[in-house]
Amino acid sequence: MMNFSPPRQRKQSINMTSLIDVVFILLIFFMIASRFEKPAIKVDLPNASSGETIDREVLAVTIDAESRVYLEGKPVDPAAFKARIAPRLAQNPELTAALYCDGEVPFQAVVEVMDRLKSAGVRHAAIRHDRQR
To answer: Most buried residue, 53, 74, 79, 123, by CB count within 10 Å?
Structure first.
């Protein structure tokens, strides 16, 4: 009987070059396809024909159509309103509150928020609107 030596096993490897290319192309695709803006609260601002631009630091206060209040895009409880504003006022006592109010918000809700701002120590407030065309 013939004595055969067992076949040598070749070391097999996976060519990673093409895989890296595909991953890189997918990465670029998703970076371009994704949106780079923060998710915003849906507010339909009212229109106005006059107004002026604020050129100083503002504190964004948003009131949505259901009269929920947001401070810098985060929901805020009426009881915690003053405590959330205090650190910003300590940094800048001349801070201006910019109210982003939905057009469907009852005026009473706007007055309540403005009253909370005043009791928190905010001296300047502005109501944001869209320019009328």
So the answer is: 123
- Cβ atoms of 64 and 100 closer than 8 Å: no
Question: 18 in a domain, yes or no?
Answer: no
Q: Which range of residues forms the domain containing residue 100?
A: 47-131
Token couple for 43? 């507010």
Look up residue 32 and give its two tokens.
């371009």
| CATH number of the domain residue 72 falls in | 3.30.420.270
Where residue 114 falls (left for φ over 0; alpha for ψ -120 to 50; beta otherwise) is alpha
| pLDDT tens digits along 75-131 | 998 888 889 999 988 998 888 898 888 888 888 888 899 899 999 899 888 887 665
Over the stretch 18-66, which tens digit does the pLDDT of each residue have?
A: 888 999 999 998 888 876 666 566 666 556 555 556 566 788 898 888 8
* Helix (H) / strand (E) containing 108: helix 107-120
